[in-house]
C-alpha cells in the first residue's frame, strides 16, 4: 500500500527536529516497507520553504525515496468541497486548504496518510487511512 507523507513528517526529517525527527524517520521507514512513499505537488511546495535551491530539495526528495504523484482532479474537487464546509461551519484559520488537498488526495487515491496532525484529517475526512501520532 502506498503512503502519502505529510509535510510535517518530512520537515521533521529535513530540519532534524529534536522532538520529532527520530519518530518521523521510524514511521517513514516502516511505511516504506509497506509500499512506495509519495508526496504531491502541494507537499513539494510546502517543503520548498525549507530549501534555498530547488536542487537541494530534489536531492532530499530523491534520497528519501519519495515519488511525486500529481493531485487527481477528483481530489481537487473534494478539497474544495471540504474547504467550503469548513468555512460554512465557522472555520477561520488560514492555511487549511493545503491540508485539505493532501487529505483529499489520500482519500481519493486510497493511500494511507502519514501525519502528526491526525485530528484535523479525521475531522474532515472520516474513514481516511492514517498512520501517525
Helix vs. strand class: alpha/beta
Shape: globular
Taking all residues together, what is the mean pLDDT?
96
Radius of gyration: 14 Å
Overall description:
The structure is a single chain. The protein is an alpha/beta fold. The protein has helices at 7-14, 21-34, 41-48, 54-63, 73-88, 97-109, 118-124, and strands at 3-5, 37-39, 66-68, 112-115, 130-132. Strands 3-2-1-4-5 form a five-stranded parallel sheet. Helix 1 (7-14) crosses helix 2 (21-34).
Chart the SSEs and their pairings.
Layout: E1 3-5, H1 7-14, H2 21-34, E2 37-39, H3 41-48, H4 54-63, E3 66-68, H5 73-88, H6 97-109, E4 112-115, H7 118-124, E5 130-132
Helix pairs in contact: 1-2, 5-6
Question: What can be said about this structure in brief?
Answer:
By secondary structure, the protein is an alpha/beta fold.
Which structural traits does this protein have?
alpha/beta; single chain; five-stranded parallel β-sheet; 133 residues
Amino acid at each position: 500500500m502506498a503512503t502519502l507523507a505529510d509535510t510535517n513528517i518530512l520537515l521533521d526529517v529535513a530540519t532534524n527536529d529534536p522532538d520529532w525527527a527520530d519518530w518521523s524517520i521510524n514511521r517513514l521507514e516502516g511505511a516504506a516497507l509497506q509500499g512506495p512513499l509519495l508526496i504531491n505537488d502541494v507537499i513539494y511546495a510546502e517543503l520548498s520553504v525549507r530549501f534555498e535551491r530547488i536542487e537541494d530539495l530534489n536531492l532530499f526528495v530523491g534520497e528519501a525515496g519519495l515519488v511525486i504523484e500529481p493531485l487527481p482532479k477528483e481530489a481537487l474537487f473534494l478539497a474544495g468541497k471540504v474547504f467550503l464546509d469548513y468555512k460554512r461551519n465557522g472555520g477561520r484559520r488560514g492555511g487549511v486548504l493545503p491540508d485539505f488537498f493532501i487529505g483529499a488526495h489520500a482519500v481519493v487515491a486510497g493511500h494511507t496518510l502519514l501525519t502528526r496532525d491526525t485530528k484535523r484529517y479525521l475531522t474532515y475526512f472520516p474513514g481516511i487511512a492514517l498512520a501517525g501520532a
